[in-house]
Amino acid sequence: MKTTLPRQSNRGPRLPALPALLALSAALASGGACAAPGDIVAQVTHLAGVLTVKRPDGSTKFMNVKSQVMEGDVLNTGEEAFARLKFIDSSEMVLRPNSVLKISEFTFRQPDPKGDKIRIEMLKGGFRAVSGMVGKRNREAVSFSLPTATIGIRGTHLGALFCQNDCGGVPTPTGQTPDNGLHVDVAAGAVVVTPNQAPGLAPSATSPSPATVLNAGQFGYLPPPRNGVQPPLVLVPPAQAVQVRMPASISQNAPAGGATGKTSDPECVVQ
C-alpha cells in the first residue's frame, strides 16, 4: 500500500534549489560510462573539513578536492566537514558532518538504460542529493537506503537526515534538537519513503508501515521503531520541519580550491 500525502501550502519556507552541477574531468564525463566494483563513479568537487574513504580492499585514505570515488567505497565526513560529490551520470550529493555513506552499487551505461542501477547506503548522518541521468530516464533504478527506510526517487532534489542522539548541532525552526528518526525534505520532484521492517521481527510478525509519497515542498518524519513496531511516516508543517541545509561554499559552484579545499595531492594513505 502506498500513501500520497496532500500537497502543502507554498507559504512555508522553501529550500533553495542546488545550482547547476560542475563538469567533471573527461574521464568521468564519458557518454559510455559504466561501473564495476573498483571503478570510478564520482569525484569530490567541493570539500570543507576532513573526508576519509575506506576502499573495498580495506585500505583507508584521506580525500581532497578531485579525489576519485569508486563503487564499494565507504565515505566518512569528520566534525564540521561537508563534502560534495559529482557522479558519472551527473547526479550529485552533499554529505553533512559526521556522516557515513557507502556506494553499494553504481551502474550507468549511456546506451543501455535497462542496465542502470544506483544503490547508496546512508549508514549515518545526512545528505542532499540531486538526481542525474539515471534518475531522469530510469527512476526505479535509484534508491537511498537508510537505517529505518528506503527512499526511491522521481526526478528529485531531496534532503535526508537520520538522527540517533547525534543531531544536537542541527538548526531547527523551534531551536530544539531534532527528534531521533529520519527527517526527509523534497525541494523538487517527489520521493517514495518505504519504512523497513522493525528489527528483530519475523517478516510475518506485523504488517509493515505503508510507503508514502512526498512531493516538492513537503517534509516528512519517520519516528524510530517503538516496541518492535515501525510507526508510519508523518507529514510535518514547513514551519516546524527540519531542513537539511548546506553552507554556501559547498552548495554554490565556486571553483575547486580556496575555501573548499586546495591540494596537489588528491589522496593520502592513512598510516
Observed structural traits:
271 residues; mainly beta; 3 helices; Jelly Rolls; single chain; globular
Summarize the structure in short:
By secondary structure, the protein is mainly beta.
Characterization of the model:
- The protein is 5% helix and 38% strand.
- A hairpin with a 5-residue loop joins β3 and β4.
- It has a 19-stranded mixed beta sheet that branches.
- The chain contains three helices and 19 strands.
- It has a single domain, classed as Sandwich (Jelly Rolls).
- The chain is mainly β and 271 residues long.
Total domain modules:
1
CATH topology: Jelly Rolls
Distance between the termini: 50 Å
Round the Cα radius of gyration to an integer and report it.
Answer: 18 Å
Q: Spans of 5+ residues with little confidence (pLDDT < 50)?
A: 8-35, 255-264
Structural classification: mainly beta
Helix content range: under 10%
CATH architecture: Sandwich
The SSE order reads EHEEEEEEEEEHEEEEEEEEHE
Share in β-strands: 35-45%
Number of strands: 19
Count of discrete alpha- or pi-helical segments spanning 4 or more residues: 3
Task: Specify the biggest β-sheet.
Answer: 19 strands, mixed
- Name of the CATH first level: Mainly Beta
Integer average pLDDT:
82
**What's the shape?**
globular
